[in-house]
Design a protein that fits this description.
There is one protein chain. The protein has a 7-stranded mixed sheet with strand order 4-10-9-8-7-5-6, sandwiched between helices. It has a 4-stranded antiparallel sheet with strand order 11-12-15-14. Helix 5 packs across helix 6 and helix 14 runs parallel beside helix 18. The protein is globular. It is built from 19 helices and 17 strands. Strand 8, helix 10 and strand 9 form a beta-alpha-beta unit. The model has no long low-confidence stretch (mean pLDDT 97). With 478 residues, it is of the alpha/beta class. The two termini are 16 Å apart. Bound molecules: D-serine (DSN). The site of D-serine has 4 residues, from loops. The site of D-serine (DSN) has 4 residues, from loops.
């Protein structure tokens, strides 16, 4: 039996076992693989983890509780989880050059909440306990406790606005981060749509945040973290960088020097499943000063660690320490630039006029469409994207005026810059052919659209040719 046959047999056995208990889940699992194999996945926050990473998640580590930290658990029998968590944290520290790594967060939002908690504990709780002459919160009198709660609730956070490309957890009002902090958002320059560090500094001087958040989920440019740290230092803020989107580009040494957040930030958060290509999860990296506070993440903020996912993080981080991963990371950026150039050469408008990371933010107003219409029309043609606001979006956060494109997933399949030029042509062709459906009063609507079946079918055939040339999980026959 060849390796490919053995692998296929193993997955067939696994799916048969699932099928015997709940056939709908086995069928959905097969169908998901077919969908992922059969479409051009351009969602900037998605990727394809390796089969070793996926396999690591499907084990009995899922059955173990392990609240606490390595060697300091609230449950007995955690020696193997200790190994898993230690190895994952060791890889994270060494890969990113961080003093401290916490690999328990279940997602990026959980990582950010853990970081907020740790920063508040470090800068608000600890000084207050000393002032109140208490060792821990349980020793506080009722009135001291009320005072501490008021202090916790009166801290300031400044992060990038959602429509400039920031994330919900960077202080967006309806998000918990916009409710637990007094918040202000910084935007981008109205002309260039680029970060304006002088404007951020002026705003920070005025607002005096405890936490300055840098990082993004839809900004197609690199950030100078040395400058962000200067701003934080000038106003006495903690610099927290959310590198969820570009962690793979840091790991792959594409973002170095001022573009590498680790040497500049006090606390760095990330997911592990985006450009880093690991399992779905989060991490916090920090300077040693914050280690003890971040370590209290579970059980103070987080539920019990997902030991099977921590194990898969360790495997993914080991993969990210290879020269092949560095080649991959550079290809992600090269592919994004090829996609951007292909679109711009056809007259498309890109936010900031291009990209130098893994994201291309296409403003679709020039095609006469909303982001929602563009997203749906592209999906009809086998191209999976997500609609996204553009700066000062006239269509709001639901319909939007943009489509966010990203190259980590297709690059994992081996797509090259010339493939991306073809993908740009397909996207442009579909969006030119799609038209908004008119409303009863004869005006273009925001949701419905018309796209000829011929255009959708032709695009699907072109996409299938590229996808067949770069198979997902080659050798796995399911
Ligand atoms: N959902 C992630 C993204 O798509 O960027 C951020 O949370």
């Amino acid at each position: 039996m060849t390796d490919a046959q053995a692998l296929s047999a193993a997955y067939q056995t696994m799916l048969s076992a699932i099928e015997a208990v709940e056939p709908r889940i086995a069928a959905a699992t097969r169908s998901e693989l077919a969908d992922q194999r059969g479409s051009l996945k351009l969602i900037a926050s998605e990727n394809y983890a390796s089969l070793p990473v996926l396999a690591t998640m499907g084990t009995w580590f899922s059955d173990k509780y392990a609240e606490g930290t390595v060697g300091h658990r609230f449950y007995a029998g955690c020696q193997n989880v200790d190994t898993v968590e230690s190895v994952a944290a060791e890889h994270a520290r060494e890969l990113f050059g961080a003093e401290y790594a916490y690999v328990q967060p279940h997602s990026g939002i959980d990582a950010n909440l853990t970081a907020f908690w740790a920063i508040l504990a470090h800068h608000v709780e600890t000084p207050a306990l000393q002032e109140f002459d208490a060792k821990n919160v349980s020793e506080l009198s009722e009135s001291d406790w009320q005072t501490l709660r008021a202090r916790f609730g009166n801290q300031r956070l400044m992060g990038m606005s959602l429509d400039a490309g920031g994330h919900l957890t960077h202080g967006f009002r309806p998000n918990i981060s916009g409710k637990m902090f007094h918040q202000q958002s910084y935007g981008t320059d109205p002309e260039t749509q680029l970060l304006d560090y002088d404007a951020v500094l002026a705003q920070a001087r005025e607002f005096k945040p405890l936490i300055l958040v840098a990082g993004y989920s839809a900004y197609p440019r690199r950030v100078n973290f040395a400058k962000m740290r200067e701003i934080a230092d000038e106003v006495g803020a903690v610099l927290m960088v959310d590198m969820a989107h570009f962690a793979g580009l840091v790991a792959g040494k594409v973002f170095t020097g001022d573009e590498d957040p680790i040497p500049h930030a006090h606390v760095v958060t990330t997911t592990t499943h985006k450009s880093l290509r690991g399992p779905r999860g989060g991490m916090v990296l920090a300077t040693g000063d914050y280690a003890a506070d971040v370590d209290r993440g579970c059980p103070m903020v987080l539920g019990g660690p997902l030991s099977h996912v921590m194990a898969a993080k360790a495997v993914a981080l080991a993969e990210a320490r290879t020269p092949e991963f560095q080649t991959y990371a550079q290809a992600v950026v090269d592919n994004a630039q090829a996609l951007a150039e292909g679109l711009m050469s056809r007259g498309a408008t890109l936010v900031t006029g291009g990209t130098d990371n893994h994201i291309v933010l296409l403003d679709v107003t020039g095609y006469g469409l909303t982001g929602r219409q563009a997203e749906s029309a592209l999906l009809d043609a086998g191209i999976v994207t997500n609609r996204n606001s553009v700066p000062n979006d006239p269509n709001g956060a639901w319909y939007t005026s943009g489509v966010r494109l990203g190259t980590p997933a297709l690059t994992s399949r081996g797509f090259t810059t010339s493939d991306m030029a073809e993908v740009a042509s397909m996207i442009d062709g579909v969006l030119r052919a799609a038209t908004p459906t008119l409303t009863k009063d004869g005006k273009p609507g925001k949701a419905k659209y018309d796209l000829s079946a011929d255009v959708a079918d032709d695009t699907r055939s072109g996409a299938a040719r590229l996808l067949d040339a770069h198979p997902l999980y080659p050798g796995l026959e399911l």
